[in-house]
Amino acid sequence: MRAVIQRVSSSSVTVDGRIVSEIGPGLLVLIGIHESDTESDADYICRKVLNMRLFSNETTGKGWDQNVMQRNYGVLLVSQFTLYGFLKGNKPDFHVAMPPDKAKPFYASLVEKFQKAYNPDAVKDGVFGAMMQVRR
């Protein structure tokens, strides 16, 4: 499993011209699922993303001191199979990404893990398999 994590002041996902999810300050996380990923990989990613100290402590002024949960910020998860793309000549090859029929329920369970570990209202996601526009 791969996760690309970006701190954002706000972020949203738009599908067919309609905003389907948005957060204020927090983390935008692009998630790539490998064909061999397991629940333990999902647990690891969830734990790491939620506990990474990426934010300054406003009380002490210390940088890189607080995680997204301590700041009560949002998390926007976006499925991104292209994180497992490889160039095969001049064409990308995604054969090591988990197939969509398996990846969709796996991704849904990952979103649930984040919501249970943190706050269901603070964790948002895009639309699996849709052509999404992600604004950060």
From TrEMBL:
Keywords: Cytoplasm, Hydrolase, RNA-binding, tRNA-binding. It comes from Arabidopsis thaliana (Mouse-ear cress). It comes from the Eukaryota. It catalyses: a D-aminoacyl-tRNA + H2O = a tRNA + a D-alpha-amino acid + H(+); glycyl-tRNA(Ala) + H2O = tRNA(Ala) + glycine + H(+). It holds the Pfam family Tyr_Deacylase. It is found in: Cytoplasm. The keyword DNA repair does not apply. The keyword Protein biosynthesis does not apply. NCBIfam families: D-aminoacyl-tRNA deacylase. Belongs to the DTD family. Its EC number is 3.1.1.96. This is D-aminoacyl-tRNA deacylase. One of its GO terms (cellular component) is cytoplasm. PANTHER family: D-AMINOACYL-TRNA DEACYLASE 1 (PTHR10472:SF5), D-TYROSYL-TRNA TYR DEACYLASE (PTHR10472). GO terms for molecular function: D-aminoacyl-tRNA deacylase activity; Gly-tRNA(Ala) deacylase activity; tRNA binding.
